[in-house]
Write a structure and sequence with these properties.
Keywords: Transferase. The chain is α/β, with parallel strands linked by helices. The chain has helices spanning 19-27, 49-63, 78-88, 107-112, 135-143, 148-151, 169-175, 186-197, 218-239, 249-272, 278-300; strands at 6-12, 36-42, 67-71, 93-96, 101-103, 120-129, 165-168, 201-212. Strands 3-2-1-4-7-6-8-5 form an eight-stranded mixed beta sheet, with helices on both faces.
């Protein structure tokens, strides 16, 4: 296999708990170190992230680990942080992930393979769940909430999440960088701009795997789906894609009634015989919480004028 030069870009914000494991995963990559650079962009963190990164840089000099630490303090946005990484990247293939992700050892080897086809401008890897103990984490894993395979079937246009995405730098040169003031939806936005404004295509690399920690509390779960709803609204205003249908009280009554009268008794019986678990019992209420939260986020969101701005190389 030919190993092209690549730049890995990771925005970091208040990630003191995630950084040690992330750095271990990066250091364990099978990709040749002389062919890669890792750019970690501290986005105005207020915890011990800065100190951890400083120590990592010191240690990398002795180990030969190609680590570069950058700081984005002007704009509080993961997209602004990624843009700074892109501007400082030395190589033509740019690979993105996040601080709360855990790349598999062969992640980089697998995600660059589709680029052997000159028509491919974007590659989306797969996202699995980190094993969790809470009901919400198990529910999210069961529903494959973050799986890229569903996004590749998006009715408007396929896209991949920046948690596991690779893009040619030349594509950014043609369509611009991420919108730095956009708070959510930037991954779909950049993919759609590239696919609509250039001839490059998107490929799926299911063996390029990262694992991601799911939300473990109702508050964070609701916040996640509200953000998905805001993303729907923003992308509708930017690209004209359809909005999600609204959550209604009549649907709530129908779905809860069906759950109480049919699904719950059936799954409770299965639970007693070891053929179901607590996630099966609570799946419908959790579906409804997610649906209602997404609908709320979509209905209350308004795209800020500044979020329409595109930064350029």
């Amino acid at each position: 296999m030919i190993f092209p030069f690549i730049s890995v870009i990771i925005p970091i914000y208040n990630s003191e708990d995630d950084l040690p494991d992330l750095l271990k995963c990066l250091q364990s990559q099978t990709y040749p170190r002389e062919q890669v650079e890792y750019l970690l962009v501290n986005n105005n963190s207020s915890d011990q992230t800065g100190s951890i990164l400083e120590q990592a840089v010191i240690e990398s000099k002795g180990s030969g680990f190609p680590l570069v630490v950058l700081t984005e303090n002007q704009i509080q946005s993961s997209y602004a942080a990624r843009n700074l990484g892109i501007k400082n990247a030395r190589y033509d293939l740019l690979v993105f992930t996040d601080a709360d992700c855990r790349p598999s050892y062969q992640w980089l080897e697998e995600i660059v393979k589709p680029f052997s086809d000159a028509d491919i401008g974007i590659v989306a890897g797969e996202i699995f769940a980190l094993t969790g103990n809470s009901i919400l984490e198990k529910y999210a894993e069961r529903r494959e909430i973050l799986s890229q395979k569903f996004l590749l079937e998006h009715p408007f246009s396929p896209y991949g999440q920046t948690a596991n995405l690779a893009i040619r730098k030349a594509a950014f040169e043609k369509v611009g960088l991420f919108r730095p003031y956009l708070s959510t939806g930037g991954d779909a936005d950049i993919c759609w701009r590239i696919l609509r404004e250039t001839q490059w295509q998107l490929a799926y690399a299911p063996t390029a795997v990262i694992s991601h920690r799911h939300r473990s509390t109702i508050k964070s779960f609701r916040s996640q789906f509200q953000r998905y709803g805001r993303s729907n609204r923003y992308l509708h205003e930017l690209h004209g894609c359809d909005l999600q249908r609204n959550f209604t009280s009549s649907e709530l009554i129908y779905r809860l009634g069906r759950w109480l009268l049919k699904e719950l008794p059936k799954n409770t019986l299965k639970l007693l015989f070891g053929k179901a678990d607590i996630v099966d019992l609570l799946a419908t209420p959790l579906d409804l919480i997610g649906f209602q939260s997404r609908s709320q986020g979509q209905s209350t969101a308004k795209l800020p004028e500044k979020a329409k701005e595109i930064e350029w190389l």
